[in-house]
Design a protein that fits this description.
Strand content: 5-15%
Largest sheet: 2 strands, antiparallel
Number of strands: 2
Order of helices and strands: HHEEH
Helix content: over 70%
Length: 135
Amino acid sequence: MAATMKKAAAEDVNVTFEDQQKINKFARNTSRITELKEEIEVKKKQLQNLEDACDDIMLLDDADAQLIPYQIGDVFISHSLEETQQMLEEAKRSLQEEIEALESRVESIQRVLSDLKVQLYAKFGNNINLEAEDS
């Protein structure tokens, strides 16, 4: 009897075109957040590599470091210690700005998702699952 009542309650909810648009928007934004978070992780690893390179260069003696190879694209170009440090600092600064921009986008998308969750749960209640699956 209880299963029949649940089934009837689930069938009572009518999905309008606008509701379907909201559900689709929620799905697209959830997917986009996942992609952005993965991109942030990749950039954080790159930033850590740059910081490690800066630390390694600081350990060099001036006598050891005549020219240091620095990768630009697929090519290594030799630079002085000071030039290499400047290039690494600029690359770190640029990467940090990119990470901050991506994190800002994630926050704005999360606000949109929160609003959509409130609207969709208000209409569909327990008949819709908007929580992320743990895999």
